[in-house]
């Protein structure tokens, strides 16, 4: 750990030694001390029996280091930990025969909650997974990781994202999740290149309702997701929807039905009592589901500028029931123009259900059991 005192050090080569780590220290932490060596150009630690993660602070070496080689040294590397090295000064970065995780980015957006990033990882056995890496520099990231681990490791449902394993130490907290090749619902609703027909949209909403019905009523203690929105709905290869991102979810006691929280969800999807007072119950998820149901069939976000002084609720309410086809996604109307009456009745039933989900008072909203029954009935009648 005293290597950092060598202020004029330019090259350090520790190749082909039997260097291991002091058991009282974190693996490979000696590399952190090299950050103080401002003249350092080359670091070589080839062929040593290390067995640990590269330190998060290693990216700061790139201010001077031009060559970093560590192949066959038993190190484990996650992509975000070495991105800081890939700057102007670094010319060679060689870590052959190392354990590389998260080799390529899964999607260019932060974790739904903003606590980190998600990567697409391919393991040595060919398995593909989504690796959610928490940014430990952000406030609340540790708590978010603990919450997701606690909830996702104890729940099982077809429409909830599956956890393969987790990684946790002082430098890294990550969840290895089932990979969803069709991305999230937001991608399908916001892109002109993707299209979901009415049956697909209904099935996705039924999947989400099934997951919420399980969380609210099928688990010994009620679980409230608290941040339900299209970007947190992931789609597998068969377009089956999976609810994800439980970073701010609340696990109630068996007899508990209401709770207070200082952690807020996403503007536009939060129930009035949640956004104003932090009051949380299963009815908060019902409200978010109602907003998402409207968005799924209109392709309008609840925060869209075109609403002006309106809200999505008022916009739908004033179009209900006779002008409902004027607000439904125009692409859906183009597809079903030959059966307008039947489809209009279907849309009216969907929007009527959505309005019952977003009543101002929590006690006036439907339960997810009732929502799921109604959605299945709509699908049976019109599809």
TrEMBL record:
Q: Which GO terms describe its cellular component?
A: plasma membrane
Spell out the molecular function terms from Gene Ontology. Answer: ATP binding; protein serine/threonine kinase activity
Which lineage ranks, top first, belong to the organism behind this chain?
Eukaryota, Viridiplantae, Streptophyta, Embryophyta, Tracheophyta
Q: Which UniProt keywords apply?
A: ATP-binding, Cell membrane, Glycoprotein, Kinase, Leucine-rich repeat, Membrane, Nucleotide-binding, Phosphoprotein, Receptor, Repeat, Serine/threonine-protein kinase, Signal, Transferase, Transmembrane, Transmembrane helix
Instruction: List the protein's name.
Output: non-specific serine/threonine protein kinase
How does this protein lie in the membrane? Answer: Single-pass membrane protein
User: Which locations, inside or outside the cell, does it occupy?
Assistant: Cell membrane
So which domain of life are we looking at? Eukaryota
Q: Which InterPro entries match?
A: Kinase-like_dom_sf, LRR_dom_sf, LRR_receptor-like_kinase, Prot_kinase_dom, Ser/Thr_kinase_AS
- Which Enzyme Commission number(s) are listed? 2.7.11.1
The record ties this protein, via Pfam families, to: Pkinase
What catalytic reaction does the record list? Answer: L-seryl-[protein] + ATP = O-phospho-L-seryl-[protein] + ADP + H(+); L-threonyl-[protein] + ATP = O-phospho-L-threonyl-[protein] + ADP + H(+)
């Amino acid at each position: 750990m005293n290597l950092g005192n060598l202020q004029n050090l330019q090259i350090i080569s520790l190749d082909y030694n039997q260097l291991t780590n002091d058991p009282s220290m974190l693996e490979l932490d000696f590399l952190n001390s090299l950050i103080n060596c401002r003249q350092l150009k080359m670091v070589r630690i080839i062929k040593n029996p290390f067995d640990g993660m590269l330190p998060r602070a290693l990216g700061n070496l790139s201010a001077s280091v031009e060559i970093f080689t560590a192949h066959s040294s038993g190190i484990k590397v996650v992509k975000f930990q070495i991105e800081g090295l890939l700057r102007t000064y670094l010319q060679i970065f060689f870590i052959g025969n190392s354990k590389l995780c998260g080799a390529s980015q899964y999607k260019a957006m932060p974790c739904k909650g903003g606590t980190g990033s998600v990567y697409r990882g391919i393991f040595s056995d060919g398995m593909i997974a989504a690796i959610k890496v928490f940014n430990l520099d952000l406030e609340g990231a540790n708590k978010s990781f603990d919450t997701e681990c606690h909830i996702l490791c104890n729940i099982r449902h077809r429409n909830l994202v599956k956890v393969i394993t987790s990684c946790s130490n002082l430098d890294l907290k990550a969840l290895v999740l089932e990979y969803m090749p069709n991305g999230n619902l937001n991608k399908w609703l916001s892109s002109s290149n993707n299209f979901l027909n009415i049956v697909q949209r209904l099935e996705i909403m039924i999947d989400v309702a099934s997951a919420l019905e399980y969380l609210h009523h099928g688990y010994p203690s009620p679980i409230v997701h608290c941040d339900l929105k299209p970007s947190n709905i992931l789609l597998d290869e068969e377009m089956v929807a999976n609810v994800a991102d439980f970073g701010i979810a609340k696990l109630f006691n068996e007899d508990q039905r209401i709770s207070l929280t200082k952690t807020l969800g996403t503007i536009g999807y939060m129930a009035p009592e949640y956004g104003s007072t932090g009051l949380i119950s299963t009815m908060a998820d019902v409200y978010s589901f109602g907003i998402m149901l409207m968005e799924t069939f209109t392709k309008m976000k609840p925060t869209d500028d075109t609403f002006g002084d309106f809200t999505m609720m008022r916009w739908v309410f004033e179009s209900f029931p006779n002008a409902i086809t004027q607000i439904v996604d125009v692409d859906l109307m183009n597809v079903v123009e030959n059966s307008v009456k039947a489809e209009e009745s279907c849309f009216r039933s969907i929007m009527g259900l959505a309005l019952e989900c977003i009543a101002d008072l929590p006690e006036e909203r439907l339960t997810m059991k009732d929502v799921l029954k109604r959605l299945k009935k709509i699908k049976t009648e019109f599809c």
